[in-house]
Design a protein that fits this description.
The chain is α/β, with parallel strands linked by helices and about 500 residues long. The chain has two domains: about 1-100, Ribosome hibernation promotion factor-like (Double Stranded RNA Binding Domain, 2-Layer Sandwich), CATH 3.30.160; about 155-480, tm_1862 like domain (pyruvate-formate lyase- activating enzyme, Alpha-Beta Horseshoe), CATH 3.80.30.20. It has helices at about 10-20, 80-100, 115-125, 125-135, 140-160, 190-195, 195-220, 235-250, 270-280, 295-300, 305-320, 335-350, 365-370, 380-395, 425-435, 465-470, 475-480, 480-495; strands spanning about 1-5, 30, 45-50, 55-65, 70-75, 165-175, 175, 190, 220-230, 260-265, 285, 325-330, 355-360, 400-405, 415-420, 435-440, 445-450, 455-460. The protein has a nine-stranded mixed sheet, sandwiched between helices. Helix 12 links the parallel strand 12 and strand 13. The protein is globular.
């Protein structure tokens, strides 16, 4: 796909609109002077801005095959760049709707955090005007606006608990028993990386101790802990226990509100691991079947059975866990509307405290896309699956408490966390809203330092791969020194 940019600097915004409708297309950006018509069925998009005295002419064009379609709008030159970019993006969006003959439930919203956008608009203009902007200016469906507002109201109570010196801790365990076909995360199968795990655990515990020392030195307040991956329960009970006890000895746990371990794959869960996790003070776990259709599990390379999920859930209850999350994915290859609905009803029969419904994202690094399995693009069915989940979860007493979107999702829908009142996953809200700093340890982890009382965020990246993390640990630890300088800078600004 070719995207022509003429007379403006809104390249990023225009690319995002193109990806909404052509998520698997490679987008080649061209200046109007060097554009060459490919002469085939490739999509060509044109976006242009031209000054006309006291006005500005915005033009969007779209071509597939022989003919061009255009939309124009003449606006005042006094509009700021944000508004000019939005209006130009909307012109292009409308052309795509005409070409593909369908609309997207989130309209022209391209960001991953629509709830955060809604909150900012409400703070600036009031709720009525914010809702109108979502509907009239961004073409968001009414039911998605309602979902956004309901999520926002639940979130607001959680966000109010965070203080200027609050932070959450994320610990990465980038190992899985096998790689699921839809996965694009940097994780390694145990079969290939088992020899790395012992040294990785040692290095990880060192980094946890180092990070805890900095947090205590800066007087930071720990709110939540999330151990994720990967699949943390690929480790042995001894390894899991060592990581968790290192956390407990390295951080002030007196203010901790939530401690989550992602148990993820049912085939990695046993009573010894769950007892180790429970005894260490973990308050919340996630057991994720993704589907309860046996043939779908096989199609995505999941390599566990439906029975293993039910057994793992029952074992977790017997071990005393009273806050369990489960994940489902809408749009998986081989699934159907009836199959997804059956999976959701099976989950509801267990009455977990929270259920997260994801939409399949066709990420370029996943096996689904690398193997060019293009038959999994039924967005209409996926939208119906998500719509069913919303109605059923509400009917069963669950509330949406966090929501985000990904690029390249089937049907352009969303991922939503649902919970019984009082069982919301606090970490999920804090990281999605970017409420406070997230201190992160482990391979692939990203520390996000948020300015106390402000919106500025600085990121510190760890090495992605376990072998790099192990071999270049000392270099990586030097980067963590930026945590101290970051907070000292803002503390000094506050005092002056």
């Amino acid at each position: 796909m070719i995207l022509i940019i003429k007379g403006h600097s809104f390249k990023f915004e225009m690319e995002n609109i193109c990806r909404l409708f052509a998520p698997q297309e490679k987008i080649v950006v061209a200046d109007s002077t060097d554009y060459e018509d490919p002469g085939d069925e490739s999509i060509v998009a044109l976006t242009a801005l031209e000054e006309k005295g006291k006005n500005i002419l915005l033009t969007a064009g779209l071509k597939q095959g022989d003919g061009w379609e255009y939309l124009n709008e003449q606006v005042s030159s006094r509009l700021d760049n944000n508004e000019l970019g939005r209006r130009l993006a909307l012109l292009l969006y409308r052309l795509f709707v005409k070409l593909f003959k369908f609309t997207l439930p989130w309209g022209a919203v391209t960001g991953v955090r629509p709830v955060k956008l809604m909150r900012k608009l409400i703070e600036k203009y009031g709720e009525a005007a914010a809702v109108n902007r979502f509907g009239e200016d961004l073409l968001v469906d009414e039911d998605k606006i309602a979902l956004c507002l309901e999520t926002l109201r639940v979130e607001n109570d959680i966000l109010s608990r965070s203080q200027p010196n609050s932070f959450s801790l994320y610990i990465s365990i980038p190992f899985c028993p096998t790689r699921c076909d839809y996965c694009s995360f940097v994780s390694h199968t145990v079969e290939r990386a088992a020899k790395l795990i012992p040294e990785y655990v040692e290095r990880l515990c060192e980094e946890i101790r180092h990070t805890g020392g900095i947090a205590k030195q800066l007087g930071l307040r720990l709110e939540t802990i999330y151990i994720g991956g990967g699949t943390p329960t690929t480790m042995t009970p001894t390894q899991l226990g060592k990581v968790i006890t290192t956390v407990e000895s390295s951080f002030d746990m007196s203010t901790l509100c939530e401690f989550t371990v992602e148990a993820g794959r049912p085939d990695t869960i046993d009573r010894d691991k769950l007892n180790t996790i429970k005894a260490a003070g973990v308050t919340r776990i996630s057991i994720n079947p993704q589907t309860l259709q046996e043939h779908v599990l096989n199609a995505i390379g999941r390599r566990h059975t439906v029975k293993q999920f039910y057994d793992a859930f029952e074992t977790a209850r017997k071990c005393g866990f009273q806050n369990i999350n489960t994940d489902l994915i809408a749009g998986l290859p081989g699934d159907s509307i009836d199959g997804f609905n059956s999976s959701l009803n099976g989950i509801l029969s267990l009455s977990p405290e929270s259920i997260t419904v994801h939409t399949l994202a066709m990420k370029r690094a996943s096996n689904l896309v690398k193997d060019r399995r293009d038959d999994y693009d039924n967005g209409v069915c996926t939208v119906r699956m998500v719509d069913f989940s919303i109605s059923e979860l509400k009917a069963n007493g669950y509330r949406p408490y966090y929501l985000y979107r990904q690029s390249k999702t089937l049907g352009g829908t969303e991922n939503t966390g649902w919970a019984k009142p009082g069982y919301e996953g606090l970490y999920n809200v804090y990281i999605m809203d970017e409420t406070h700093s997230i201190l992160a340890c482990g391979a692939g982890a990203v520390t996000k330092l948020r300015q106390p009382g402000g919106d500025y965020i600085e990121r510190i990246f760890n090495y992605k791969f376990p072998y790099e993390y192990n071999s270049r640990y000392d270099d990586m630890i030097l980067r963590k020194g930026r945590m101290t300088s970051f907070y000292e800078t803002f503390y000094q600004q506050t005092q002056t």
